[in-house]
Amino acid sequence: MRVRPAAQRALRQGHPWLFEQAVIQQPDTPGNPGDLAVIFDDQRRFLAIGLYDPTSLIRVRILQRGAPATINQTWFAAQLAAAAARRAALPGQGTTGYRLLHGENDGLPGLVIDRYDAVLVLKIYTLAWIPHLTTVLAALAEVIPAQAVVLRLSRDLQRQPVWLHGLADGMTLAGDLPDAAVRFHENGLCFEADVLRGQKTGFFFDQRENRARVATLAADRRTLNVFAYTGGFSLYAASGGAPEVLSLDLSAPALAAAVRNFELNRHLPAVAAATHTVLAADAFDALAALRERGQRFDLVIVDPPALAKQESEVNGALRAYRRLTHLALGVLEPAGTLVMASCSSRVSAADFYATVEPAAVEAGRPLQPFAHSGHAVDHPIGFAEGAYLKCLFATVR
Fold it and tell me: Which sequence positions are flagged as catalytic?
């Protein structure tokens, strides 16, 4: 393939995607998802090689640039080993659940691998990985042998069964998975995750370090966890000494999992001493109702799902963050702590903070930020669009 000059510059600078409109020449014979695409510059010199996907606007996901390479099991094993080495310290920190491979940011675009102790979950976001799964599995067995390997497919892929060759979301690719609920540890706490049906791959590992920070802030503080999902922040708050924790989420099954996660850790004195309640409701409506009832908390955590998956949704997301800030401050005690997070890659950290902090001023409760955080070690940033997570910690008057 040959591509436009701007795309050549982007690829040389390490960008992992080649978009459809950047292609100016390719073979007349239509390619199939997973074909290897070799990209040349204007002088017909090798530029990069990647996985071709004619069904996606991201036409090629780059695997290798600068110098040619043979893309085979040995090559994949080297990439996986490098990714594993970056996370080698985590098990020694009481963490057996983490992101083993972070897609583009670890050199394998469109492929995520999460580790749940002895179970690995592969999630793919492009059909281009389907023909290479057998090779990737063999390479993975070299690097990190697992009890089971589970396949998860993005929603977009699930809508294209003709290219899946019988593969389905939640199927076991290798080994034996006796139960969908898999247990693992994070900073010494025990969790379970539904790796077959849970959101993403079953758990959100990216907030691990922010959860740990919450534990250091929670002593003697009544805590509200908004968009709690399976109670990650809630359990950390309890382990840090929060006497009362309320987990709020729209999903009753997720909150049931949060209750089970607490039970898995009741042997810990601080968790045993904490009162944990759950509320299945819309976050916006519930926050307003809690305020009307006069319920107040010393620590409020707001960690919504991605609110802007497209550029056209950014302004709506910023309005939602502004509203959530007002609502959260409405139930926060004076001198309380607010934790606000965003996982929307389309919303920059600068725009997020420039929305939340003025919203607090509008509410008459200006923030005193004491920490801004981003990505943990298992979620490295390899290119600008790879930076999605931002989290604000602030004391509120």
Answer: 343
Return the DSSP state at 287. Answer: H
Report the relative pairing of strands 223-226 and 297-302 from DSSP bridges. Answer: parallel
Contact 342, 308 (CB under 8 A): no
The set of residues, in sequence order, having a beta carbon less than 8 Å from that of 161 and lying 6+ positions away, is none
CA terminus-to-terminus distance, the chain: 59
The mean per-residue pLDDT over the stretch 137-148 comes to 96
**Closest by CA position to 107, among listed 395, 354, 331, 383:** 383
In the 3-class helix/strand/coil scheme, how is 189-209 assigned residue by residue?
EEEEEECCCCCCCCCCHHHHH
pLDDT digits (tens, 9 = 90+) for 272-296: 999 999 999 999 999 999 999 999 9
Helix (H, G, I), strand (E, B) or coil at 267: coil
Indicate if the alpha-carbon torsion angle 329, 388, 84, 147 is positive or negative: positive
The whole-number pLDDT of residue 119 equals 97
Secondary structure letter of residue 263 according to DSSP: H
3-class secondary-structure state, position 183: strand
Crossing angle, helix 232-239 and helix 252-264, to 10 degrees?
30
Among residues 189, 221, 220, 217, which one has the least CA distance to residue 205? 189
Residue-wise DSSP of 80-136 = HHHHHHHTTTSGGGT--EEEEEEGGGGT-TTEEEEEETTEEEEEESSGGGGGGHHHH
What are the φ/ψ torsions at residue 196 (nearest 5 degrees)?
-90, -35
Under 8 Å between Cβ of 181 and 209: no
Q: E-assigned strands of the chain?
A: 2-3, 17-19, 23-25, 36-40, 46-52, 58-65, 97-102, 111-116, 119-124, 148-153, 172-175, 181-186, 189-194, 223-226, 244-249, 275-280, 297-302, 332-342, 367-373, 390-396
CB 189 within 8 A of CB 215: no
C-beta separation of 119 from 182 below 8 A:
yes
Q: Are strands 2-3 and 23-25 parallel, antiparallel or unpaired?
A: antiparallel
pTM of the model as a whole: 0.95
Task: Lay out the sheet containing 111-116: strands in order across.
Answer: 97-102, 111-116, 119-124, 148-153, 172-175
Nearest-angstrom CA–CA distance, 378 and 108: 14
Cα separation, 343 vs 11, whole angstroms: 26
CB 331 within 8 A of CB 290: yes
Contact 193, 97 (CB under 8 A): yes
